[in-house]
Amino acid sequence: MGNRITEDLQNMMNSRKLFAALIWLAGMLCLPLANAQLTVEIFGSGANRIPIATPNFSGEALMQGSVGEVVRKDLELSGLFKQIESGSLLGVEGVTPDYNGWKGQGADALLLGSINPGQGGLVDVRFRLYDVVRGTELFLLKVSVRPDQNRALGHHIANKVYEQLIGQPGIFATRIAYVEKRGSRYQLLISDFDGENAVPALISEEPIMSPAWSPDGKHLAYVSFDKKKPIIYVRALDSIRTVVLANYKGSNSAPAWSPDGRRLAITLTKDGLSQIYLVNADGSGLRRLTNSNGIDTEPRFSPDGSQIYFTSDRGGSPQIYRVPVEGGAVQRVTFTGAYNVSPRVSPDGKTLIYIARNDGRFQITMQDLASQQTQVLTDSAKDESPSFAPDGRTLLYATEVGGRGVLSVVSTDGRTRYRLNNRAGDVREPAWGPFEK
Amino acid sequence: MKKSLVIAATLAALLAACSTAPTEPVAAKPAAAPQATAKSDIPTPVKPAAVKSDPFKDPDALNKIPLLAKRSIYFEYDKYDIALDYVSIIEAHSKYLKANGGAKVLIQGNADERGSREYNLALGQKRAEAVASNLKLLGVKDGQMEAVSLGKEKPKATGHDEAAWAENRRADLVYGGK
Fold first, then answer.
1. Which of B115, B116, B125 sits opposite A251 (nearest CB)?
2. CATH 2.120.10.30 fits A175-432, yes or no
């Protein structure tokens, strides 16, 4: 967890000494926005986006990379903010800003920060958020980080801004897992939510699929083919410890954690065709859940843990069904179209996302579970493996562009869309991790 | 169960060993195999000599008998029954597995690239199971077979057209280690 910020806000807030620290007036204050690596498409007028100015912090040269850039990109990716340029204005953290000037630029909010040398090789960071319209300071926060933690710091600050202005927790410090195929090599990668900072959790010459985060973010279940067949493993992320969760005769696939992290739903073929089983997180207590003559797979727990949503061809074509975890009547959930697979329930339990085939195109589709109304969210043709952000606002999914697998994000309101295009290889199987603890 | 397999295997090995020298030329004649297969339903071997020369018991049968060298079964789109073209191949493998009780086969099902990875894994499994259940009907023991799926993860054909998809709707018979 070397990249996570170990913050002691209270402690820092009490240390008045910091006020005496030098305020760096580096010339980078008014740097223009760096060319964004990601292209964010925003549909609609953008009238609901909050105009915010977040110039680079003073003293950014003390960090190994820009902080302001990370904050700006994070806020932009949320689709809820519009970046306002500083123009000729000079914002200095600690000095009351020229509210009228910023108002004139069109900003409703302003973030200013400063970075100063700290103790033990750390740097001390202070950042203030201002309500430009009301002319008030909303918060002042302080944190100490290592100079190489500019990305983690930026995500942390973006979270604080987001929480203050949107009133909900931000997802900027969450992580995602995905699989990259490069030549004949497969890597299970873990990165920041925007695809940056990727580190391999596993490298293999055989395919890897279905990574699944435990609810505490400490374990990843996945399927590997290193023994000529699919076997489910669970890897502890804070060590190199990997255990076999299920290696029964036949295929072992599609792991999904229960919300309490105690057990997983998995697909096994040990008793014939693919069927869904429940197993404790240590591999014990295996119990068969579904009983059909066809294929039952892709299980997912509902957020309250009471239901399992899954894909089944029991009715002739693959459709989505649900069954109580403790067993009981199976209910069909999707009715439109001849191919509906990969169910994912939103964190609030109200919406179902799945992949539907429409005229040969596989697309992310959203269904309101109460009204059964559906809506196609994408216009691509090979969408796969959707994964909700923990706040349920956006979805990460795999698709194909120019014959290459890429990861994309779309908001559930369909208005924001961007692609994570920072990997050279073929990427697939994304899984969005939980809120950082 | 395991014990009886081991005994059967040992017996088979012994039989093969004592019959090797005199009958090898016969067993090695590959052209005879398809004919033998076609008539296989009628149990012809009455003479003890014929039993000993069962070409399927030859330890090297997998390389010698043309039908056994065929290890891929192809499937139509959304179909999971064995097409007529492949019945003789399945029969040949059933004979080999029955003649060699110690032999084991991994049946790897595959799927074309269209659609969900996990669902395709289940579709590949369905193809592997189709082969396994046919082998079972022909008398092959469960313990000698394992039906698994590679889904669309290891495509043999990497194209994106009907020809590539057809090539990947397939189950492969994989013997010991390879």
1. B125
2. yes
* Tens digits of residue pLDDT in A44-71: 655 689 999 999 999 999 999 999 999 9
Q: How far apart are CA A283 and CA A244, in angstroms?
A: 8
Vertex A271, ends A270 and A273: CA angle to 5°?
90
Return the structure tokens found at A100: 């009228």
Mutation site, B119, B127, B136, B156, interface A, largest A CB count within 10 A: B119
How do the domains of chain A map onto residue ranges? 9-166, 175-432
How many structural domains comprise chain B? 1
Q: Are B62 and B176 in contact (CB under 8 A)?
A: no
- Output the domain CATH number for residue B154: 3.30.1330.60
Query: Which of A209, A273, A298 is nearest residue B126 as measured by Cβ atoms?
Result: A273
The residue behind tokens 């017996």 is: B11
Pair of tokens at residue A133: 């319209």
Q: How many CB pairs under 8 A join A and B?
A: 98
Residues of chain A with confidence (pLDDT) below 70: 1-40, 43-47, 422
> Cβ B149–A251 below 8 Å, yes or no?
yes
Phi, psi of B75, deg, nearest 5: -125, 150
Structure letter (DSSP) for residue A129: E
In this prediction, does ipTM exceed 0.90?
Answer: no
User: Measured between CB atoms, which of A228, A269, A318 is closest to B106?
Assistant: A228
Distance CA A126, CA A15 (A): 12
Contact B117 A339 (CB under 8 A): no
Cα(A339)–Cα(A345) distance, integer angstroms: 18
Superfamily of domain A9-166: TolB, N-terminal domain (3.40.50.10070)
Which B positions 126-145 lie with beta carbon below 8 A of chain A? 126, 129
pTM (2 d.p.): 0.85
- Helix crossing, B117-137 with B84-99: angle to 10°? 70
Q: What are phi and psi of A277, to 5 degrees?
A: -130, 160
Q: Would you state the pLDDT for residue A402? A: 86
For B90, the domain range is: 2-175
Q: By C-alpha distance, which of A48, A180, A78, A75 is closest to A129?
A: A75
